[in-house]
Write the structure tokens for this entry.
Amino acid sequence: MYNRDNVFYKILNGQIPCEKVYEDAIAVAFHDIHRCCRIHVLVITRGLYINFADFVKQASADEVKSFFHAVSHVANMLGVKDSGYRLLMNSGLDAGQEVEHFHVHILGGEPLGKKLK
Ligand code: AMP
């Protein structure tokens, strides 16, 4: 069950500031507070979903499509379309998901290597 006591819910509601780069009816994108490479932006849903599986299960097909279009649009806006980028979706304990509100990391702006660690 979605728990509103999380930092992204507070960002969506304006209780916590963020360095916003994009927003539309479905998604909001902002810089990660702990950047792990030159470009590290998070795209979160406006809808209240815990993780990827919850999003895919609960959201309408239109919402899923619009969200991933927004992710692609943000990557283009960030100028990493041609240089390349990595999308990361942490889900659950083993992935180290810190914030239980569905989000995608856009990572790029420099060579990232082939693996995650
Ligand atoms: P995850 O491990 O996928 O849940 O990642 C959550 C991400 O949210 C981490 O990379 C954090 O650095 C980032 N984060 C946490 N609090 C904030 C915040 N207030 N503004 C921006 N990013 C945040």
Observations:
- The longest strand covers residues 39-45.
- The radius of gyration is 14 Å.
